[in-house]
Amino acid sequence: MIGGLAKSATSILRQLVDAGTLSNLPGGLKARGLRIKGDDSPIMPGEFRDVDVPGGAIRDNITFLPYKEPSPTLFSLLQNIVEEGKKFASIAEMKTSDMNSQAPVGTTLALLERNMKVMSAVQARLHASMKREFEILVNVIKDFTEPTYPYEVAEGQQIKVQDFDARVDVLPVSDPNAATMAQRIMQYQAAMQLAQQAPQLYDLGQLHRQMLEVLGIKDVDTIVPPQEDVPPVDPVTAVQNILNGKPVQAYEFQDHEAHIQTLVSAQQDPNIQAKVQQSPNAQVIQSAGSDYIMQHLSLQFRDQVEREMGVELPPVGEPLPADVEKRISELVAEAAKRVATTNAAQAEQARIQEQAQDPLIQAKQRELAIKEAQVANKQKIDESKILIDAAKMAKNAELEEARIAQQSEIAGMNVGQRIASDLLSKEADAKKQSSKDYKLGLDIAKDIVKDINLNE
Predict the structure, then answer these.
(1) pTM above 0.90, yes or no
(2) What are phi and psi of 439, to 5 degrees?
């Protein structure tokens, strides 16, 4: 594709080199009779040699051929051809500092892809050619080599033909979509930026491992161990690993509530909070802690649903038939509702208890208790007053009855005295009444007094 440009550039470069060589070491003609002693050796700087001149001046006996120096026009043409070849066959020179760091990932990849279009096409064709050559080699090995392997294999030595049949593809390890390491790094940087926007959709550990492999870093699994290689630890060790930037993983058999409470207590500790805020990795530590809590919360909810259902759920990732999955989904939905209701009731109870411990609410409750005590005391005082008033009224009634009885008795005695006086007066006036009549009057008076007392 750039063969013509390469040939032209090579030809012009040779012309410029030849012109410079002939200009620096020119050749020419000299007179036949001109003799120079030792003309077969170069003249050293500051050296003078004898010359035999047949006649005239030396310059009249020597003539230089008309060689020109390298042409500036030809050199400019060479530069133009080389520049055209660069633009056509390689990525254009871009200053990273001049690019906008906030530019969308798609824009950056589009510029990179446009500048690498030719090289990407060449690499894709090389990839396809290598794949075709591998297919030829596979057919050759299958048809013309021994049918057994010369060494022991797990499945047996008689599988050589099966390993190279038409069902097996031997592919190059090159990537036709990324011609250079810089392009592959840009692609992974784009993927990592997308992962930051929606981290729940990505396996960040696998993405980081592939990024490190592209960068050519060894021992990737040691630096970023796979999720299944992270060992289970106790709650305190989990907190230490999170603070130190080490990976942690929640497992189904752990005490989820203990791990959650331990990490929450560590997050609320003033000393730990101060140190984490001063750390340059504060955001990473907080994100790792939140992720670890969410892992245990999800497993804890799974355990609650299983206890509510009374059976264990299938392992995570295990394929299920459609009918089984539908039935399990119905049961899980019902159990999840009951778990949510129970958790809501517990949360409400915890909220009430927390509010009961609030100083403001406690002060209000004490104030209400004081008011209730005051109202109760007032009621007791009013009841005491009522009892005292009732006792006074009863006492007054008794006194009034006694006074009435005394007045009745006095009235009866007065009546008796008057009757007795009348009888005495009659006896005195008549002078004929006997002592028997006087006693009778007294008895009558006493009987009247008794009758009055009995009536009262």
Answers:
(1) no
(2) -65, -40
